[in-house]
Design goal:
It is a single chain. With 145 residues, this protein is mainly beta. It is built from 1 helix and 8 strands. Strands 1, 4, 5, 6 and 7 form a 5-stranded antiparallel beta sheet that branches. The protein has a 3-stranded antiparallel beta sheet with strand order 3-2-8, with no helix packed on it. A hairpin with an 8-residue loop joins strand 5 and strand 6. The chain is elongated. The chain starts with a helix and ends with a strand.
């Protein structure tokens, strides 16, 4: 058994058993740069203006009726039985008719149950939407008056 191990290690050349030659190759160092180039998107910073009036649209999903209302900052309005309070709204400084976003609180006026509390974006209403079985509310625009 020991003889077989020594022969495998090519130490038995004198005994007449043919030894195998083992070649050892040096491995190349690992590349420093990643094999797949990184694509980092450059995010453009856009300055925002604060508005004091937001235009909202409400939809009753059962009967298909919709209503457009305007709310001042700090004010509230009732849309189809939901109390909508505007805390703040903003819009791009270079493009006042562009993408607006508003911080809204939407709750039941009778028991105070909160259905939505956060930022809602006009161009992507489904990104952070009101979760109500019958009604839908979204931001249309924000402006200063």
């Amino acid at each position: 058994m020991l003889r077989a191990v020594l022969c495998a290690l090519s130490l038995c050349a004198a005994s007449g058993v043919a030894a195998q030659s083992i070649s050892v190759e040096e491995l190349a160092p690992a590349p420093v740069a990643p094999l797949v180039p990184e694509n980092r998107e450059r995010v453009e910073r856009v300055e925002a203006e604060t508005g004091n009036l937001v235009s909202l649209r409400g939809l009753d999903k059962v009967n298909g009726k919709s209503i457009d209302v305007e709310v001042r900052s700090g004010g509230s309005v009732e849309i189809f039985g939901l109390l909508v309070t505007l805390r703040e709204c903003r819009y791009p400084a270079e493009n006042p008719t562009g993408d607006a976003y508003a911080f809204l609180s939407i709750r039941d006026p009778q028991d105070g149950r909160v259905f939505f509390d956060g930022w809602m974006i006009a161009s992507s209403p489904a990104l952070n939407a009101l979760d109500h079985r019958r009604y839908d509310v979204w931001v249309l625009r924000c402006k200063s008056v």
